[in-house]
Amino acid sequence: MRYVIWGTGGVAKRFLGENLLCLLVKGKITAVVDSDSEKNGKSFFGCKIISPKSLVNILYDRLIICSSFYEEIITQITAMGLNAEKARTMVEIKKELVDCYINQYEIMKKNILVLGDEETYNHMSPFYKKYFGQFFFLPLEQSDRLNEYRHDYILLSELSNTKYNLQGEGELTLEEKVISEIISKFDIDRGRILPSAVFQLLYRNCERTVSYGTCYEDKTFLEIWLAGPAGWGYVFEVINKNISYAYKKGYIPVINMMSDWNIYLEENEVGKVNAWEKFFEQPAGYTMEDVLKSKNVVIASQEQTTEYYNKNFYQQLVMKPRLQKMFDSYMKIFGNRGKVLGVLFRGTDYANLKPYNHYIQPSLSMMIEKVEEKFKEWGGFDFIYLCTEVEEAVQAFVEEFGEKVFYYPQMRYPEQCSDYLGKQKFEREEDAFYRGADYWILLNALAKCDSLIAGKCGGTNTALQMNRGKYKNTFLFDLGKYGFQIEQVE
Hints:
Layout: E1 2-6, H1 10-24, E2 28-33, E3 43-44, E4 47-50, E5 62-65, H2 70-79, E6 87-88, H3 90-104, E7 111-116, H4 118-131, E8 134-139, E9 153-156, H5 174-186, E10 193-194, H6 196-205, E11 208-210, E12 221-225, H7 232-249, E13 252-256, H8 276-279, H9 288-291, E14 297-299, H10 313-316, H11 321-334, E15 340-345, H12 349-353, H13 364-378, E16 383-388, H14 391-401, E17 405-407, H15 431-447, E18 451-455, H16 458-467, E19 473-477
Parallel strand pairs: 1-2, 1-5, 2-4, 5-6, 7-8, 7-9, 9-10, 12-13, 12-14, 15-16, 15-18, 16-17, 18-19
Antiparallel strand pairs: 3-4, 11-14
């Protein structure tokens, strides 16, 4: 498959930074197009940038439009006499790739050797079980043993541990380096080595139909399955769009956070308790008990297009009485604080483990410096509301800003923790419940602040969505992502 990329702006950088290796499994990029004449001849992800007029001389199968001006570009392509049917949006090309992996390569039926980080593999194994019939694991440090195993495809797990997270000059990703070494050492075909992003594509874009029983023949349920260490930020994003998608398709949405472990379940609750129902009502009144005896069930894709985003989602969530009581109690206290500057500082696991493809977080000193700057520049604040899981951050902010700082009374972690927060536990009854309840309440409080300073992460996105554009001022640190460099036009 020969691809042409149209666009070299931020949208294109993000798309290629995350999906380039997926495109290269069975294809190649033949050209990059940009209408800006000053960029012509420069390099973008190793390809020479050409003008739209030069596209008539290029052979290609797909034109991926990496721009928010899709309709305008289609009009331009048509006016040039080119085949607009070859054009694809970024979402469409992802769906096309997934269809190719499932139906053409049939990777769900093949022997998959997962190569990479053991920690990542352990928390991803429930996902692998959902999609692969046969898979086994080999640690990256034992890759010399590849020839000892029979496999159809090698799938890299996310190399999120810091011992692998090394960057060289001009290196796009560590995965690219690993793939090159495997090809060189074992003479394995490039098409048989799948980057971790391939699996991300699969479980985020793969909708499947199953049958669990014989009941409810006149209904179709959309099972929104979530598992693993993801927090509310990712959970809400998936559920928000899938509820809207279900209603548009005529399905009944049911959230499944019980079949496999997630951070809001205790180990002894897996398969018995639905974590979602600890906090919120099911959107349509049906439960997993109904789904698990139903004839017609669709397992939802994790990723839906923005057309299904519901801006009223958070206002429509119905809290369970226990959570509602905790929420009302704290918000009554929070509401009497005057003009508040909200600060979200994410440290600990992000800072120490540098999870691959996650946004780089500011250091504590960077955050304090920025808060000092904006506190004076924006002016008029009565208090600073600090959202953080880091105990040292609370101490540092209190030392710097004194009584102007307040924060939610949650349990916190030392800055130098050695594991991901999703795997950290406090020795208390119902730790999983309080983890979810505390985070939900503090994010709602953060969304009610007058202004916001934060690093990019799921919690920040959730607060912005809850706030619905009402922040008077915002500053978000944009420091790139752990594990790869976003290439600039040279």
